[in-house]
Amino acid sequence: MKKILFASTALVATAGVAAAEITIGGSARFGLAYDESQADETRIEQRMRVNITGIAETDAGVKLEARFRLEANEDSHANDISGRGPGAAGFAVSYGGLRVDVGNVSNVLDSGDQVDYFGYGIGFTSFLEANSNFNGPATGFGADSKDFTTIKVRYNVGDFSASLSYKETRAQAADTTTLTDSNGDTVVITNTAAVAADEEWQLGLGYTLANGMAIGAVYSDTDSAGDYWVLGLNGTAGAVGYTVMVGDGDNQQDVSVSASINYEVSSATSIRALVADGGVTGADTAYGLGFRHGLGGGVTLAGGIGSDSSSNTKADLGVSFSF
C-alpha cells in the first residue's frame, strides 16, 4: 500500500501530534475461469481494484477515514470488459474500541465482525464460498453507487465484540423520458428503475475463547426479506484453519450449513476444501477443492474445482497480487 502524506500549516504547528494522509492500495487478478452453466463456458478472468482512503487523526486520537473504490473487470463470459467508479464514499470514525461506519459500507453480516460469512474460498476468484447455500442479506463496500445508506457501529472490549447496523432504502420513482418516434407513437424510455422502500437492522455478538476459537452470531430483520440468523465459529488447530456456519431465515426453505478448511502444507502452499448444503428450495450440495501458493512479493498462484448449489461444475486457475 502506498501512502501520500499531506500536512497543512495547522497540522505542522502541532508538532506532529495530529496527522493527515492519503493511502492508495488495491489488488488485481487474472487467469482462466470455467463455468459449465454458461454458453461460453471458459472466460479470461480479469479484475483490478484500487481503494483510495483519506485519513486524519485529531490531537485526542480520534481517527477519521473516507474512502472510495475504482474497479475494472470482465462483464460476462463473452469476454467484454469495463471499468467503473469512483463509487459512493464510505466514512468511518474510531476511538479505542469503538468504530462507526457510514455511507457505502458493509452491514454486520458482510463485515465479518462476528461471523466469517465467506470462509476459505475456492479458487483464485473464490467461485465457491462458505455462504454458497446461504441467502443472508450481506451488503458491502464497492465501486458502484447505492440506493441506500448504511450505518454500522462496532465495539470491542477484551475478547468480546458487538456490532449493530441499520440500512435504509427510501422509495424512489422511476426516471423516464417520453419521446415520439417517426410514426407519431409515444415511446417511454426508463433511465433509472424505481426503487422500493426498505429497512434493515442487523445485530452481531462475538467472543474469542482462550484457545483462539471465535464464536459469533448475527441476527437480521429486513422489511423485504424477513428475519435471518447465522451462527458461526472459526479458528486454527496447528496447520489447519477452519470455519463452520449454520443459518436460516424467512427467505429460504431449509437450514443452511457449511464448513471450510485451509491446510498449510508449507509456509507458501495451502490446500482448501469447502462444503455447503441446505438453503433455498432445490439447492444442491456445493463443494470444492483448491490450492494457493505464494510466489513472494504479494503474488499468489491459485486455482480450484468444484460444484455449485445448482450442480454446475466450476473451475479456475490464475494469479492474484496486492499493491
Automatic annotation (TrEMBL):
Q: Which organism is it from?
A: Tritonibacter mobilis F1926
Query: Gene3D superfamilies of this UniProt entry?
Result: Porin (2.40.160.10)
Q: Which residues form the Porin domain?
A: 7-312
Q: What InterPro entries does this protein's entry cite? A: Gram_neg_porin_domain, Porin_dom_sf
Q: Please give the start and end residues of each transmembrane region.
A: none
One Pfam family from the record = Porin_4
Listed under GO cellular component are: membrane
The residue range of the signal peptide is 1-20
**Gene Ontology terms for molecular function:** porin activity
Entry protein name: Porin
Going by the UniProt record, its keywords in alphabetical order are: Signal
